[in-house]
UniProtKB/TrEMBL annotation, chains A, B:
PANTHER family named in the record: CYTOSINE DEAMINASE, CYTOSINE DEAMINASE FAMILY MEMBER
One Pfam family named in its UniProt record: dCMP_cyt_deam_1
Official protein name in the record: Nucleoside deaminase
Boundaries of every CMP/dCMP-type deaminase domain copy: 2-117
Length: 146, 146
C-alpha cells in the first residue's frame, strides 16, 4: 500500500468514527514530514456546527500555524467550495482526495491556484458516502446547502 | 443612516470586542428579515482556532440551517478566500463589506458566482484594521497565511 493510501486510511477511520456518532461520515488528516499532525471529521450533527466539515475540523485541531508549507491534507471526499477556499487561503500545497464520485467539482479550482490534487478513487470512501446519502438524505442536503 | 450602515455598526461592535480581547479585529453579523440572527468575530488568538475568522465564527454561531436564502452577511473586512468560498458554498445571496482597502480581492469571485456585493468603504473599519496591522503585524500575517 502506498504512503498516500496509508494516510487516506487514517482519514477513513475519522469518517467511520463520525458515522458511528450519527454524523456526516467525512474525515481528514493533515500530514507533515511523514506524520499525522492533526485529525478531524465532520461534526455538523454532533456539535450543531455548519462550518465543521471534515477538513475544517482537522485544520481547527491543527491549531495556529505560521505556515502550511510541506503539508498534505487527506480527505475522504472531494472538498466543497468552503473547504477548497480554505485550502487556497491557507496555502496548503497538496490535497489527496478519497473519492469525487458522490460529490465533487472543485478539483480544477484548486489546481488552477497551484494546489497539487490527487484523487485515489477509493471504493471504501465511496461506499460509506453512498450509504450515508441513502440513509440520511436530509442531513446530506443540509451539509451541502442544497 | 441607512439600514446597511446600521447593521455594519453591529459588525464593527463585534470587531471592537475582538480587539479588546487582544484578537484580530474583524466582526460579522448575519441578518435575516431585518434582524440580526447571529454575531461573531475573529477568535484565532482567543481560541487558538485558525478557521475562526469573523464571518466563520458568525456562521458557526448561527448554527444549523436548511437554507441561507434571504440572508445578508455583514463583515467589517473583505472576505478572504476561505470566507468567500463559504459564502458561495452556503449560498448566502448578499454580502455587505465594511472596507476592502487594507485587505481584499475576492469581490469578483463572489460576484461571478451570483453574490450581491456592496462595499461601504467605512473609515472606522479601515482605521481599526490599519491600527491592528501596525501594532500586531505577525498575528495579521498569520491570519492571512503570509
Amino acid at each position: 500500500m502506498s504512503t498516500d493510501h496509508s494516510f487516506l486510511c487514517e482519514a477513513i477511520a475519522e469518517a467511520e468514527q463520525g458515522f458511528a456518532e450519527g454524523g456526516v461520515p467525512i474525515g481528514a488528516v493533515l500530514v507533515e514530514e511523514g506524520r499525522v499532525v492533526a485529525r478531524g471529521h465532520n461534526r455538523r450533527v454532533q456539535q450543531g456546527d455548519p462550518i465543521a466539515h471534515g477538513e475544517m475540523d482537522c485544520l481547527r485541531q491543527a491549531g495556529r500555524r505560521a505556515s502550511y508549507r510541506g503539508t498534505t491534507l487527506y480527505t475522504t471526499l472531494s472538498p466543497c467550495m468552503m473547504c477548497a477556499g480554505t485550502i487556497v487561503q491557507f496555502k496548503i500545497p497538496r490535497v489527496v482526495i478519497g473519492e469525487n464520485r458522490s460529490f465533487g467539482g472543485n478539483e480544477e479550482f484548486l489546481r488552477a491556484r497551484g494546489v497539487e490534487v490527487l484523487v485515489l478513487d477509493d471504493p471504501r470512501c465511496l461506499e460509506l458516502m453512498l450509504r450515508f446519502q441513502r440513509e440520511k438524505p436530509a442531513v446530506w442536503a443540509e451539509d451541502i446547502a442544497e
